[in-house]
Amino acid sequence: MRPSILSRPPSTLRAVDVLSPRSLEAALLLKAERPDAVPIQGGTDVMVELNFDRGRPPTLLNLNEVEELRGWSRENGTVWLGAGLTYTEAMEPPLSELLPALAEASRTVGGPQIRNRGTIGGNLGTASPAGDAIPPLLVGDAQVKLVSLRGERVVPLHEFIVGPKRNAMSDDELIAGVHVKPVSGRETFMKIGPRNAMVISVVSLALRVDGDVHAAFGSAGPVPTLVRASTDDVHTLPERVADAASPIDDVRGTAEYRRHALRVLTKRALERCLA
Amino acid sequence: MSAPAREVVLGRIGEVSRRSDAVPKVTGEFAYSSDLHAAGMLWGHTVRSPQAHARIVGIDTSRALTMPGVHAVLTHDDVPGEKLYGLEFRDQPVLAIDRVRYFGEPVALVAAEHPEQARRAAEQVRVEYELLEPIVDPERATEQAPLHPDRPTMGRGYRDDERPNVVRSLVIRHGDPDARGDVSVSGVYDVGIQDQAFLGPESGLAVPDGEGGVDVYVATQWLHVDRDQGAPCLGVAPGQVRIRLAGVGGAFGGREDLSMQIHGSMLALHTNRPVKIVYSREESFVGHIHRHPARILSEHRATREGRLVCVRVRVLLDGGAYASSSTAVTSNAASFACGPYKVDNALVESLCVYTNNPPCGAMRGFGAVQSCFAHEAQMDKLAAALDIDPVELRLLNALESGDVMPTGQVIAGKLPVAEVIRRCAALTPPEPEELPRDPLRLPGGSGNTTRGEGVRRGVGFAVGFKNIGYSEGFDDYTAARVRLHRTADGELSAEVHCAAAEVGQGVANVILQTARTELETEDVVLAAATTSAVGSAGSASASRMTWMAAGAVQLACRDALAEHRRTGSDVDLERTYRHPRTTPLDPETGQVTGERAHVAYACAAMRVVAEVDVELGLTRVVWIGTVQDVGRAVNPSAVEGQIEGGTAQGLGLALMEEIQTRDGLITNASFTDYLIPTTLDMPPVASELVEDAEPDAPYGVKGVGEPPTVVSTAAVVSALRAATGRELARVPVRPDDIVGL
Predict the structure, then answer these.
(1) DSSP string over B331-387
(2) Residues B199-219: what's their mean pLDDT?
(3) What fold is seen in the domain A70-180?
């Protein structure tokens, strides 16, 4: 990555409209009217792009005052996470007991200030290969609920993320939240960083043993990826996870290390969850 | 628009003295240089080279000049005076003339009403470049076309090295460099580019005085040298440039070289408006010099009993595009290459080259950090080869007062190497914590990567030393001015002027404590540091400022008090303090040409306990114990702070801090990708002080800022080696190195 300030293409000074709807219905109306509006909650991704002038959207759709997006609930055996759920909220019981891997992932996000602002919906919207919440949601079979004036649809998370920082949303849609299966067995999340706190992951892994075994990794390919196994063939899982990865060399780590670390993490996660 | 107020705090020499900037810094109220404001001010922005090496074919400013809010767009044509400047050698253009030599080199300046307007206009300055092949491999630099054909560092008393791109080469021959021992160990050690990573980016405000001069409020380390570099380029007399210290958000050597001083002044004089420049974080990473990356080849020969017979070292330093303080770093790396040990025979070759990599210069530890990493790795290797306890091996060879350095300099002052080793080895690390435990207390920290699997514990040890003060014949001095009067109620009241830069190290308290001690009054104020009220203080660098400021203030206070007692009237006098004179090294033999090349030395020993996840290559440093030779602690709590901060900076180099480049371009210019230790990476430090007064120094003080940084990188890696059994010959240590990929 070349420093943007020294090499980015010239941009023009342009005002950004900030729209602040007070309800989901109002938000959807605005999004239909202004399909180029970029939704913003905590701003921990969007504002970085804006401040570094990597992107200057014509319009920001501020969703912080949309009550319907907040909080979480239990619904018919699943857990509903509103798009506005913060990492701090995901770390608190009883939610952290229903989705322990998500709680562990949330603990690895930035510092307390970032965790207070950053949201699950934002992490999905950004769809980064390094999104910390994504592997735990993948192993929880998360179903993303997208809403628009046209109605609503549900997309499995592994289909929602279609490429690095690309998702399956249409221009008029917003993320309402996700349905996730609470863990009945065990699950864990692990993340390697270049230091012991406040890092973007070099590689991460979520693993759930819940009848079958579900493993999902981040930062080791263009998209966070789910690998399934039956409890009979777990011994091959570390190698299968490493094989499923397509990591690259970058400033945070080497491809070889990422693959190696995935084997170690998968082995350790299995020991934790099968013990 | 004023410099931060410095108020009276209690305390005399040796007493804990609370810093007036402590609370405002913690609460966020401290005024840093980036907080400056003047009515009607414009904002400056620097157009920088996106290339590491290119010829400038043309610069078109016409479009930028038409942008909204723009008042000026300046290029090298607009530099009023000298086109080149430099801390020691004038080899660096104020604005690039016909060629750029590093990524981020300043090419043009813009001033506009609003910072964003300035930035946008800067993007419209069209610079046409013709790419040149960058010199990026320091090993090959002496065979490539010269970046500075006029050889700016040659003819200055250094060894005349004919090869292209040599900044300085120094060879120290001592005794019989071919002497053989019973055993020999050797290694090749690499040090990556570390950045000072101060939190307050370069910033300042230049205010035209309406008479052709300018007042510059800036975060810097040496006010007078900024003035003396700036005035010739601005085409004005030195007195017309008044440098005033603004709030400094960390320095660590990175503010020795100029940043916005001349640029801001040019824009201010051109527009006749105050001009403020604040670098962004990204710009800060490319806009200042870094610690020299190094490759060090070492061979240690010893007797079977472990006594060093001969040490042979080759040091290669990458100086980047401009000289900065590289010649002195080259010398330091050579001076300390053999470590704080008695070595009768040595051959040390130290070479610094120009390349198109990021320019390097002063950073805390200044050449000694790189050398310490190598010599301590060698001592551990030798201990292993001889099956001798590493601490015993170091004690056996410990340098002491009266011994001779490889440069032939007899250590005249105090250097209690054996004592710091003994006391440090006696510090007791905590017992290993039991499992299971909070993952925050395991390698990998918040990442929850282990519950104990793969974790090995290692204990490391290292000793380091460094010079205090400027060396090799530099005429180094500090001025202090004292105004004394009796108040109406008969009490003595004093105002002290000293241009010593308070960069966070606590020199303001040193000055106040000195004055209170000498004058025996609490009523002392320290005036704002400026070039217009007092002579030069020299640089807040080289662990010299405490010694030098205390010396100057002591001298001025004593003379002022004597004069006041003699005349009974108010006194206003200025005195200049000099430390014992040094002389250059012989350019051919590297031997001292007088009594000393370095003023004095300080040493530190450090013991480190680390836990390493050997399967994932992750580390948790558990505990650090250190004993440091400080001469005399002026302000014990500030000394403790320097030890902790300096240790953290060395730990950063050991584990994570590295400027990464590709073809000379920096690829991680942000705090997202250039990481410094968090509180989860940095353990508690148990520190003890050896207070053995330095004979030539005021109150026996030595500087304390650098020895912890010198020794901690080596000590941390020593612990990692003990835990992993791997050689780990490169810092920062990468997970791949630990795992063995």
Answers:
(1) HHHHHTTT-SB--SEEEEEEEEEE-SSPPB---TTTTHHHHHHHHHHHHHHHHHHHT
(2) 98
(3) 3.30.465
